[in-house]
Design goal:
The chain has 342 residues and is mostly helical. It contains 14 helices and no strands. The longest helix is centred in the middle third of the chain and has 27 residues. The model has no long low-confidence stretch (mean pLDDT 82).
Length: 342
Amino acid sequence: MALIIVITIISSIGLGLSWFFGIQLVRRKEKHNVVLGYLLIVLSLRITKSVFYNFIELPVFIKNLGLAANLAIGPLLFLYGRLLLFPHKKVSRLNAVHFLPSLMYILFCTYISNDAQSSGWRWSYSFILFQSYFYIALSLYTYKKGKIDTDRNTKEWYLILISGLAAIWFMYFLIFVNVLPVYALGAISFSILIFVIAFLAIKREGVFKAQNPRKYANSKITFEQGMFYLEKLKKIIEEEKLYLDTQLTLKKLSIKLNISPRDISLIINRHTQQNFSNFINSYRIEKAKELLCSADKDTKIIAIALDSGFNSLSSFNVAFKALTNLTPTAYKTKYASHLSPG
């Protein structure tokens, strides 16, 4: 009994956070955040049923409404991924078809069997688990397709969300086949996911920020043209090693690409989710990592900073730590030693 109480407390904390984040996100204007908000709310409804089920016998229609919520989670995860990773694409109204199983479960919630001993319930629950993993697979496919268009933090966040939901459904599958005896463990896995979301909301605020296509409205550069110019820009930067120029500016790049500095800035922001400075610094940091690994012990960090295209040691240290989570000295100590003889 004590274990159930502890599990319930942890689950309740997770539910509270989920409702809080869900409501806050639904109130925002960005479509991808609104969908994420609904995903958290629907997931909360599903887990609330599980928490109460540990203590009282729920009416059949309440149990089935919990399963109807379960059937909406996968489609919301998929739709969220489409909006998050492909903000330039319109979402068709035909996507409403994904929610038909959930709607049918709601309409017939008083008639569908929810007796764990009946074969009908086992078949219907098997379908729900299958549907959940079908959308996990579909979301992973969406993640893979979106890898070119989206920055690393956003991709990692979506993958974490997919993995977290996959873990929850796997927990419920193990409970379903009687491998795990404690039903509330599904709610525990949910709480862990919500704690991760809360942590990311603090540490990686950028993944929840608005993707504002309006700021591109006055640009004559289409999305496809932007991708073309971005590849051309990368090629020029890499082949001519322009990132080593400490005085590199948008104006210098605009002359080489024959488009305005403003359009270059918008292209970088739109397609890499970075500003100009961070975009160029990513090249400089890669060069610095090479130099740090090959440098001897007497090489000064300031020399590596200047040889990498930075014009000061302080800006180099800040940029390097932001991209690698290590100081240049710590990176040199950790990796240069691996290349030393013996």
